[in-house]
Design goal:
binds zinc ion, about 50% helix, TIM Barrel, binds hypoxanthine
């Protein structure tokens, strides 16, 4: 039995590449913002909020996640949300984060794009200055909405282009294949955005192929169903296409019945550049350190495996080569 402590995990510098900032809204902050903004929530207290977090599928989670996001109204709210997440990063020794935000969740409620991004940006700048955490923003399109709405969001983002590293695709997967967004991804590419997409979380391996071939993305979010298609798995290995795997999320949303059944170790054994991430930590029961720790216990990961996973997180990131090399060297020198 391998016994790896939380402290050993903490010693590893880590990057997080799959984190929805709206999914880091803790019940306490949700209540506080509801009060501050005069919003009536469906829930009377913290225990009612927590009791609602019993999910049976991605959609059952998304319904509650969009409901919670309604308390975010002002720049200060987006600042508080992001700052709280960064404090968790500090605790877990997450030194770099590539953060999703869903503009449409807010602009569709009449909140200006500028309000959202100014709040996020101000917290991220402070995070760099006071906590030493670097970050990029990834603007995600909601795939259950039409491509025309994504085009509108892309247009709204252009004045803030320098603050946004890339685009992503999230929300309800099945029935909304990546190819629905081919043209908007092409347009975003021409503006210089990098791109990623959720694919193969609940959707089939064909969605992963489509995300690669139609959207021309640099890495895949989730992607765990790739092992159902050996040709695809081989392609991911050969081309070093990263997967941002979210183990606790997958269990909460019943993609795997329990963490012991998760295929993370199989992905690593197949030579795939897999990383560990927290997805929506306030809803799924743990930030990045907890995801590493629970996986270590349930999947019997060794310190060597953990070093590979931490290294993969930097290799798969959008950081420049010199910064990747800096962190990889530090990890290499941590004893196994
Ligand atoms: N999948 C799809 N959409 C999402 C997720 C997810 O895991 N989290 C927040 N939006
Ligand atoms: Zn996600």
């Amino acid at each position: 039995m391998i016994n790896i402590s939380k402290d050993q995990i903490k010693k590893l510098p880590k990057a997080e590449l799959h984190l929805h900032i709206e999914g880091s809204l803790e019940p306490e902050l949700m209540m506080k913002l509801a009060k501050r903004n005069n919003i009536t929530l469906k829930y009377k207290n913290l225990s009612e909020i927590r009791a609602a977090y019993q999910f049976t599928s991605l959609q059952s989670f998304l319904d509650i996640y969009y409901e919670g996001a309604k308390v975010l109204m002002h720049e200060e709210d987006f600042f508080d949300l992001t700052w709280d997440y960064l404090l968790h990063c500090k605790d877990d020794n997450v030194v770099h984060s590539e953060i999703f935000f869903d503009p449409q969740t807010h602009t569709d409620r009449g909140i200006p794009f500028a309000t959202v991004i100014h709040g996020l940006r101000r917290a991220l700048d402070l995070g760099k200055k006071e906590l030493g955490i670097s970050s990029y923003l990834i603007m995600s399109f909601l795939r259950h909405l039409p491509e025309a709405n994504a085009f509108k969001t892309l247009e709204q983002s252009l004045p803030f282009k320098d603050w946004i590293k890339g685009i992503g695709l999230d929300s309800s997967e099945v029935g909304h294949p990546p190819s629905k967004f081919t043209r908007v991804f092409e347009a975003a590419r021409q503006h210089g955005f990098l791109s990623v997409a959720h694919a193969g979380e609940e959707g089939p391996p064909e969605y992963i192929w489509e995300a690669l071939e139609s959207l021309k993305i640099q890495r895949i979010d989730h992607g765990i169903r790739c092992l159902e298609d050996p040709k695809l798995a081989q392609h991911l290995t050969r081309k070093r296409i990263p997967l941002t795997v979210c183990p606790l999320s997958n269990v909460k949303l019943k993609v795997f019945q329990k963490l012991d059944d998760h295929n993370l170790k199989k992905l690593l054994d197949a030579g795939i550049l897999a990383t560990i991430n927290s997805d929506d930590p306030a809803y799924f029961g743990g930030y990045l350190g907890e995801n590493y720790f629970q996986c270590t216990k349930s999947l019997g990961l060794s310190m060597r495996d953990l070093k590979v996973l931490a290294s993969n997180s930097f290799t798969a990131s959008f950081l420049p080569p010199n910064e990747k090399a800096h962190w990889l060297k530090i990890i290499e020198h941590i004893s196994a």
